[in-house]
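Q:
My hope is that you can spare some time for a protein that puzzles me. I hope you can help me see how the letters and the tokens relate. Thank you; the sequence and its tokens follow:
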Amino acid sequence: MTQPVNTYDEMPYDSHPYAQTHPGRLAVVATLFGLTPPPVETARVLELGAAAGGNILPIGEAFPQARLVGVDYSARQVEDGRKWIAATGVGNVELRHASILDIDESYGEFDYVVCHGVFSWVPTDVREKILDVCQKHLAPNGVAYVSYNTYPGWHMRGMIRDMMRYHAGRFATPKEQIAQARALLDFLASSCRQEGAYPALLKAELESVKNQADHYLYHEHLEHVNDPVYFHQFVEMAGRHRLRFLGEARVGTMVTGNFGPDVEKALKRVAADQIQTEQYMDFLRNRMFRETLLIHQDKVPNWTIQPGSVSGLHVASSGKPVGPGQPDVASDATVQYKTRTGMTLSTGRPLLKAAMGVLARRWPETTPFPELVREARALLGGSPQEADSQNLALGLVNTYISSDLVELHAAPVAFTRTAGERPTALASARARVTAGGTSVANRRHELVRLTDLDLRLVPLLDGTRARPELIEALTAKAQAGELRVQRDGQPLTAPEDIRAALGAILDQALSNLGNQALLVA
């Protein structure tokens, strides 16, 4: 019998990090909700649908005492990932070519189980097996992450998917199907003359698809299986496997206060518990996607966050004060802060403003909470006060759940912002670029897109070259036509001119890589 074609072998998924799946983020949610998750630094992590390992390899590199196992049914992606792992020299990450259905007791126990971008795209028996794995292979205090498409949002998106599949199914290759799916959306959006919600939906989906990579469009919209569920249905399925809802990877989505006081009051009237509250919030948002965390049924989360839970965490913030000059942190004057995404938040609390100043100077590094309390108080002057920890924790928690101004991590994010005498980039980043990649994972578990100079520089940063040697190596690349070096818009060709130009920008380039959390020395 002919084996069915694995569509992920035909069109591999871009394998990269998903910050919200990092064990350090999952542990934060469990900690805030009153549980004691396993330490991240020594965690055992299982990823279902790991592709080429782009999500787990950076974690293994950051935590050498951890153990990470990835499972994927695509032989091509697993083989690509094994080559990448071997090139990095990271020894605690393993990729296995296997079906999720084949996972048995020999796999052992894991502190964290991650299943991103799989649940909605597999048949019912595999879905049940995913939850079975989460129950049977999850450590007693462990946390499982499962993402999936949800209703009601996917009712509308499902119509678009059906139209694209109807049209694209007439064509043979993935490349043709993707092109035809895009063409159909373009045709529908430009040809629909009626007024109202339908043409607006078509145009919105067209804009969304325009920005999606081919591999994402193919596997998200054109795969044979894509079965969304309502949140309450997912929780019921998990309950049959003796698993309990812990929360969402993005805790802010769980806060009813973000809808405003009137809606919050109404939700409290109609929803009897947290599960119903979550479902009604999905109705309000027209939610399409969830990233749900599960725990064993005998563990009971406390969704009323206690400020003291922050005491063992690490804090970071990209927030910068809006407006000229330095903010007045000592008074009760309100200061507005803006995040990288453009979100703003205002506070007049002196201790929180002082803490924001500490975090701004250290960004993108993390700071242990007790250290942050001490340094914030030192900025304000005077002796430490007994209520400092409680007050700052409360301010940080409120900021964390209402915006992206504050990040909380269960383990420090370790890298260096200042390049050493012989600069060293992450081994995974060097291997990725050497293999032809243009984006790499950083220590914050984010995807970083590199400049042309970075793409030539990063593979050289293996700790064996000082700056003069880096300049010589880059000069050779420029002379070979691999790197374009210019002055005043004109390309340089003379070796001495190229060296001088590179020497003038090298330190800044290294500094940029450090600030992007890509250097370890």
User: Anything to note?
Assistant: The mean pLDDT is 91. The first strand starts at residue 44 and ends at 48. The chain has four domains: 16-151+228-296, 153-222, 307-409, 427-515. Residues 16 and 54 are 4 Å apart (CA to CA).
